[in-house]
Amino acid sequence: MTEGTNGMGQNASSGKRETRVIEPGKTIGVLGGGQLGRMMALAGAPLGYRFVALDPVADGPCGQVSAQIVAAYSDKEAAAELAARTDVITYEFENVDAEVAALLEERSYVPQGSRLLYTTQHRLREKAALEAAGATVAPYAAVSSEADLDAAVERLGTPCVLKTATGGYDGKGQFVIRDRSEVAAAYAELAASGAELVLEQFIAFQCEISVIAARSSAGETSTFPPAENIHRGGILHASIVPARVPARILAEAEQLAAQIVESFDAVGLLAVEMFYGKDGKLYVNEVAPRPHNSGHYTMEACITSQFEQHVRAICGLPLGSPDLRTPVVMVNVLGEHLDGVNKLILSPESVGTDLVRPKFHLYGKAEGKTGRKMGHINLLCGDTADALAWIDNAGIWPVEGA
Ligand code: ATP
Ligand code: MG
């Protein structure tokens, strides 16, 4: 895909987008039928919206709570049907096929636009846009040969991380290079995918945080409180809110996310992942133009959830209050945790302290494979230390370092 030669690139230069107010009672089309679409539909229903999901798998997480068109994401006839049956279209993943995005923009109303997808689908384009927004990113280099990689490793130093520029999620498509002797192995592994590659310096961080920013089609902007994110095995394990960083960093992170969502001229949600470096600075890792796992805590802990905020933003409604009602820890339920969590739903008092109130969210996925996101629990608490102790006491998640 070359810049500017497809529907998305052309759109990027076509200037101002049209905006509409989509009133309650109208129908929202969602490209994708996973848990993000499901929670969007569950949050949009109280505002009177109906939902139609397009997904190749029937009766998936979203299809269980919405109408569904069962077809491949790249199926243009199905995309045209989605456009015909709905008043506004959004997506729950960023790897939307460029031709399908162009078709949907032509036949329907896609307030997020395809330019945002075009930027965030590719790590090099995304980094350039982040730098243009005034954000600091980890020093990086584009890599198109093993010799390139070797030179970049020498320049950026070790440790560093080689990533595919497109298609990565949950840490897939990455190789951490700890020593220059690993260059050949790293290149061989990632070049096999055929994707473009990017090398990043490994940021020594105190912790990872993220901010979910929203911007409505009317131009209103709002940010949720930053979450502190703990990853295990490359997958998000828990989000802690308030993040345990100095107050000035919380403010700086929200300000930075607001600046990025404005600069990207985004509509809908933009999740901004950041490293809080040991040097005290914030580095932006990546952004996602959709609801994000690290924003699931908002479901009970904020006045407005990220899903409701997304619906409000794309429909041109006033944004809701993002205020935090209570400290919270969100813990992910992967396939290997599902049996334990099902038992816990039946007898929550088995871990119970009345200091922590668990709210369960299961996604209705048929098969609970290891590492697959099956649900999450929002642990409402007075002190996030109690919720972290609750996770350890539950005995479902291996205790770090044990
Ligand atoms: P996800 O889908 O979970 O967001 P992803 O596959 O898009 O993941 P990244 O967010 O780029 O990948 O990286 C996954 C994790 O790897 C990060 O959250 C962080 O823990 C670590 N990581 C990635 N890049 C760097 C870096 N440059 N410096 C330090 N840690 C990094
Ligand atoms: Mg990430």
Automatic annotation (TrEMBL):
Pathway: Purine metabolism; IMP biosynthesis via de novo pathway; 5-amino-1-(5-phospho-D-ribosyl)imidazole-4-carboxylate from 5-amino-1-(5-phospho-D-ribosyl)imidazole (N5-CAIR route): step 1/2. It catalyses: 5-amino-1-(5-phospho-beta-D-ribosyl)imidazole + hydrogencarbonate + ATP = 5-carboxyamino-1-(5-phospho-D-ribosyl)imidazole + ADP + phosphate + 2 H(+). Pfam families: ATP-grasp, PurK_C, RS_preATP-grasp-like. InterPro entries: ATP-grasp (IPR011761), ATP-grasp_carboxylate-amine (IPR003135), ATP_grasp_subdomain_1 (IPR013815), PreATP-grasp_dom_sf (IPR016185), PurK (IPR005875), PurK_C (IPR040686), PurT/PurK_preATP-grasp (IPR054350), Rudment_hybrid_motif (IPR011054). The keyword Metal-binding does not apply. It comes from the Bacteria. HAMAP family: PurK. This is N5-carboxyaminoimidazole ribonucleotide synthase. It comes from Saccharibacillus endophyticus. The gene is purK.
